[in-house]
Task: inverse folding
């Protein structure tokens, strides 16, 4: 039994343009026409016909809406979305087979492959994603973490067909500083294959290589986003995954060269962050087993990074906490003489005081009076000294340092009197004779200042009250 030309044309139109509302209507007309003919042939009552037509409309609209939905990331996975618009159906098929499917296989492989959910946006939607605002909205709708978007155009150059590929990337992360956002943006701009021209005769090989390129950059950048969002373990897995991929790729390709240089630095950032967290846990718990973990994290930092100022500070703390290697800790800190930040001087002054050289310690503290450090740093320094005093009460000379810090640097004169008093009450009175004299003198000066300040306030209050 043949199909009438009109119905055949309607079916072809609906199949080709199924996602458009007009195609939905065409499809419904086709189904209803076939159903009407069948119902008429069996002499079905009108009520049955209305029921069948109504059910057909409801089911068709539901299926059409479901088929048009934007895919969403599976719960518990990292959503990786690819949205590439194409100018022709032929181009769409080639990009899907030679680039997108290859990229999907690559992203799904490796150590971290199981954690990704690869989503492909249909070309009819991808064609409308042309800037970062639209890309960001699409990524959010997909509940995804990473989005590659762009367009592919086919052009004839000198009689040969070429694919022009324009790609950009968008990655999600927890709220981060503008500096980190700028870093992510720079990494994308520099490393992602933003504009490529691929000759038609080399397209299979070129798209394969481009997929590998995108895979490495994507995992690397997702690693950065994971790290700044606090997921250090996953960031480390991604960096190691990329390292494994690069070991088997072209050693001379510029982007791969840059990635080989940067991944050790990124891994060092992870180890540095872990070292800081371990030190913070030690401060909170005083669990001595954490000190060895602290050192292990520091030892994993790339050798080229060990002369960075933050690493030197951490290293000096470990040398002290690990085995009280005062000389080595001081040698580390003396590398920082050109640093404007005063934290290293506080640490150096503490070491001098710990080994009973209070003159040099106070000299460093006096020098620090012209340096500004955040209140949080001062709080950490005072907390650290207090922790050492708790575990080593025989180092009571550290109260002398606390008194000076609270008096001259923090301006907490009541606490300074208390600290100087504890220094004077501790240990052998024949030890630190000069410092004891100074502490007595300073206590009297501070008490006099406090009394003068109190009198001034009282005097102001008395004048303000009428007789």
Result:
């Amino acid at each position: 039994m043949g199909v009438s030309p009109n119905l055949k044309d309607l079916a072809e139109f609906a199949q080709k343009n199924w996602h458009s509302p007009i195609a939905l209507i065409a499809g419904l007309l086709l189904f209803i026409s076939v159903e009407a003919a069948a119902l008429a042939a069996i002499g079905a009552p009108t009520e049955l016909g209305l029921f069948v037509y109504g059910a057909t409309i409801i089911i068709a609209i539901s299926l059409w809406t479901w088929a048009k939905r934007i895919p969403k990331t599976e719960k518990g996975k990292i959503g990786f979305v690819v949205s590439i618009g194409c100018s022709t159906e032929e181009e769409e098929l080639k990009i899907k087979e030679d680039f997108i499917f290859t990229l999907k296989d690559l992203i799904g492989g490796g150590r971290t492959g199981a954690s990704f959910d690869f989503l492909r946006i249909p070309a009819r939607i991808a064609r409308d994603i042309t800037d970062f605002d639209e890309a960001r909205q699409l990524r959010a709708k997909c509940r995804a973490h990473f989005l590659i978007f762009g367009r592919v155009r086919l052009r004839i150059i000198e009689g040969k067909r070429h694919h022009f590929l324009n790609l950009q990337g968008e990655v999600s992360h927890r709220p981060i500083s503008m500096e980190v956002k700028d870093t992510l943006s720079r990494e994308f701009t520099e490393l992602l294959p933003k504009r490529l021209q691929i000759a038609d005769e080399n397209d299979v090989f070129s798209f394969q290589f481009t997929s590998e390129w995108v895979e490495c950059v994507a995992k690397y950048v997702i690693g950065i986003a994971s790290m700044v969002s606090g997921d250090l373990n996953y960031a480390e897995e991604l960096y190691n995954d990329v390292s494994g991929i690069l070991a088997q790729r072209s050693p001379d390709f510029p982007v791969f060269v840059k990635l080989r240089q940067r991944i050790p630095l990124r891994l060092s950032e992870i180890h540095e962050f872990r070292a800081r967290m371990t030190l913070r846990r030690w401060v909170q718990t005083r669990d001595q087993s954490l000190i060895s973990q602290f050192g292990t994290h520091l030892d994993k930092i790339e050798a080229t990074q060990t002369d960075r100022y933050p690493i030197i500070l951490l290293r000096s703390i470990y040398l002290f906490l690990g085995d009280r290697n005062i000389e080595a800790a001081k040698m580390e800190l003396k590398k920082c003489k050109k640093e404007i930040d005063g934290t290293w001087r506080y640490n150096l002054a503490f070491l001098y005081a710990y080994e009973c050289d209070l003159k040099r310690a106070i000299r460093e503290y006096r020098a620090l009076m012209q340096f500004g450090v955040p209140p949080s740093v001062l709080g950490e320094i005072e907390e650290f000294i207090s922790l050492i005093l708790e575990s080593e009460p025989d180092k009571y000379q550290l109260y002398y340092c606390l008194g000076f810090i609270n008096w001259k640097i923090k301006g907490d004169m009541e606490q300074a009197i208390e600290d100087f008093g504890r220094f004077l009450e501790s240990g052998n009175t024949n030890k630190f004779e000069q410092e004891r004299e100074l502490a007595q003198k300073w206590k009297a000066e501070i008490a006099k200042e406090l009394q003068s300040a109190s009198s001034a306030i009282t005097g102001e209050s008395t004048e303000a009250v009428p007789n």
